[in-house]
Amino acid sequence: MISGSASSGTFEALPNPRGGALRSVELALAEAQLALEQRGDLAAPLLRAVQTLREAGWLGAQRLADVLVLASPLTAAEPSDEPDARQLFTAALHDFRAAVGRHNLRELSCSPALYAHYAALSARVSRRTPGFTVAYEDLALAARPVPPVSFSAQPAARLAHLRARYERALLPVLRAHSSDGAASMAAAALTRAALEDLDACLAELAGPDPYDFWRLASACARSLRVSGHLVGDTDARRFHARCNLALADHARGLSLAPRSLVRATLSLLWRDYALFGAAAEDAEQVELLRDYGLTVDWHVAGTQESEALWEAGAAEAQGSGGVAGGLLEARTRELGVLTVNAHAYEDFLQTADGAIAALAEHARAAGHPEKADPSEALQAGDAAYRLGAAAGGLGLGHVALLADALGLAWRRRAHAGVSTPAVRAHVAVAAPDVRSLEEGAEALRAMLHTIAAGIAPPGASPALAVLTRAVEQGGA
């Protein structure tokens, strides 16, 4: 995994030159920026952007646009009433406009730089709207189903020992700071040693259930450490502090981890992989993410120099369409509000044909429980994930979200078939019912038929709601 800067105005992921573009959103954001400079009407263009983003299924970006709408009145306030509000808004709008032009849906959902703007503006809005709070996972996991996650059964004495050991190691991490000097270097070394001990505790707590919280937490801790989120990092400190509270819940006999904690941990684990891709050594974490309906790309750019070359090539491709400017229009297709590269569109249709055929075949087989094969369910999940990744790369947000949810449902079904009696004795993985799988596959097929006809697909809300219930509540 390759780490990058999360500072405001710095984009972490590579641009997606073959991704679909929302021209009307780009124009609306340009109009909003001009209105901001001229102290004109900001709300109208921003509301148009929100509507188009919702229609395209760019849900993370839609949330960012929503908070821009809510915060836009602050730009007209007196400086004494809202100090720095205009400056915050200007920076957020500038960076959001640039990110939308990069056509990378994962970045729009997972970018810490964009989330920093989202959180800062939301904090200003909350002064006038009590109860308005946001979290990173609200962007990263927008509308995604998250399965229930258990605390694996542990002997009380062993759990008490690990909890005491964890709390001892936690203190240096919570006290860590990022000041300079020899003293801070010594403190950093102490904190790294404490983090290694925290990692070891989480690894010992992890159980065999694929949806065991400590298994997820252990992977998240390793990811934070490998990506360099160590000394003085707010996210790492908050994560480890919340794990300590979860240990207390576990000791009190709770069987399920709090949903908010699961979502926060999952989004942290996915963050850097979604932005930078994964390498061969990350295979275990990638498989765990797939258990939760999240996919990543395998990166090929392993150095800053190669990434810089990719950035330059991507910018050139986006500016010229890869051909002479006069031929650009002939190489694009319009799918409602989305403008897509014609070659990328054809490639997507080929991927979709194979994936939907495999999903239909697996769904038919799932109707015969006596012939159930967990490996078949895993293959069905993989087919759905291939379709989701291809749809997300093209900018088809609704299709990507539904395909990933269907992949997660199949993944749950696979684990339900292979869970050992020892695991089932504590928390069984509930298999989503066949009907929800069939409805999800049929909805995807209908969406793909409209796309093949050159028409924008409708939203996937009904089918997504069915799959969400099946994943989060178990099958019937």
Word description of this protein:
- This protein has helices at 23-38, 43-56, 59-71, 85-100, 105-110, 112-126, 136-140, 156-175, 182-205, 213-226, 234-251, 259-276, 283-291, 304-320, 342-366, 374-394, 397-418, 421-424, 434-452, 461-473, and strands spanning 332-335, 338-341.
- It has 476 residues and is mainly α.
- It has three domains: 23-134, no CATH class; 156-291; 325-473, Four Helix Bundle (Hemerythrin (Met), subunit A) (Up-down Bundle).
- The chain has a two-stranded antiparallel sheet with strand order 1-2.
- α8 packs antiparallel against α11 (234-251).
- The model is unreliable at 2-9, 178-183, 320-330 and 422-427 (pLDDT under 50).
Task: Describe the structure in brief.
The protein contains 20 helices and 2 strands. The chain is an all-alpha fold. Strands 1-2 form a two-stranded antiparallel sheet.
Blueprint (SSEs and pairs):
Elements lengths: L22 H16 L4 H14 L2 H13 L13 H16 L4 H6 L1 H15 L9 H5 L15 H20 L6 H24 L7 H14 L7 H18 L7 H18 L6 H9 L12 H17 L11 E4 L2 E4 H25 L7 H21 L2 H22 L2 H4 L9 H19 L8 H13 L3
Antiparallel strand pairs: 1-2
Helix pairs in contact: 1-2, 1-4, 2-3, 3-4, 3-6, 4-6, 8-9, 8-11, 9-10, 10-12, 11-12, 15-16, 15-19, 16-17, 17-19, 17-20, 19-20
